[in-house]
Design a protein that fits this description.
The structure is a single chain. This protein is α+β, with helices and mostly antiparallel strands and 138 residues long. The chain contains 5 helices and 6 strands. Helix content is 28%, strand content 16%. Strand 3 and strand 4 form a beta hairpin.
Length: 138
């Protein structure tokens, strides 16, 4: 089971408020996710982490009426000049990757201008239906 509080704590600890982007969004976000108790397959590009997230219990959230929740992981599609895309986690207040993103999920002005697509992944907690009598999603 994934502990999103531990993941968020690691995310905040590893990215000081004054730290600029280091170009290592996937590495920092993956480290935080793994601090919560799951092991992800490592990828070179942020854009490739969706399947690894799904393999450990995250699901893709429909974007229609999406509201950020602490622990959500966002993967932004690549743009010209940024072929690896971007990956960050929402800590309950802001998106954080290898830096604190005070302008939303898009990490920079070019991303915000182009408004490329993105996917949001959220960890789903499933209770054992035999033990609890029901299956629930958190």
């Amino acid at each position: 089971m994934w502990d999103k509080q531990k993941a968020i704590e690691a995310l905040r600890t590893n990215t000081p408020a004054s730290q600029p982007s280091l170009g290592q969004c996937a590495h920092y976000t993956r480290m935080a996710i793994e601090a919560g108790g799951v092991k992800l397959k490592h990828h070179v590009s942020a854009k490739d982490y969706g399947s690894s997230l799904e393999a450990v219990g995250f699901v893709k959230v429909p974007l229609g009426h999406y509201q950020h929740q602490a622990g959500d992981v966002g993967i932004v599609h690549p743009i010209p000049g940024h072929p690896h895309g971007h990956m960050a986690m929402f800590d309950g207040s802001i998106w954080i990757s290898d830096f604190r993103q005070h302008h939303g999920l898009y990490p920079g002005a070019t991303y915000r201008k182009l408004k490329k697509g993105y996917n949001i992944y959220r960890y789903q907690v499933l209770w054992d239906s035999a033990a609890a009598g029901v299956a629930c999603f958190a």
